[in-house]
Design goal:
The chain has helices at 8-19, 28-73, 78-108. By secondary structure, it is mostly helical.
């Protein structure tokens, strides 16, 4: 969002009141309204800058969180997964051979 200029809010408020039939003349009342508009402008601009800083920090933390989750859930490196898959195949083949030999031994009896 764009920042609000110092007298912009007071000017718009004065125009709004003029459209409703209320004229702000120079005096104590108008100065107090002007000061209140200045305080409100400062609060709005300060909040906008704080939200921008918070958004940057939240984005940094989200990136860190995503990296942590990815590291924890990503598959292991290809060298270890390749070894594991060949080991699993070897175990599967050995199990098949032992089943076949047990069938042969049963048929001989």
């Amino acid at each position: 969002m764009k920042t609000i200029k110092k007298d912009e809010l007071f000017e718009n408020f004065s125009e709004f009141l003029n459209a409703k039939g209320v004229e702000l003349k120079d005096g104590d009342y108008a100065r107090r309204i002007n000061r209140a508009c200045d305080l409100l402008t400062d609060a709005i601009n300060g909040t906008q800058s704080a939200v921008k800083r918070a958004r940057v920090e939240v984005d940094k933390k989200l990136v860190q969180l995503r990296e942590t989750i990815h590291e924890a859930t990503a598959p292991k490196s290809t060298t270890s997964s390749g070894k594991a898959s060949t080991g699993a195949k070897a175990k599967k083949g050995a199990a098949t051979k032992s089943k076949a030999s047990s069938k042969k031994s049963r048929s001989r009896k």
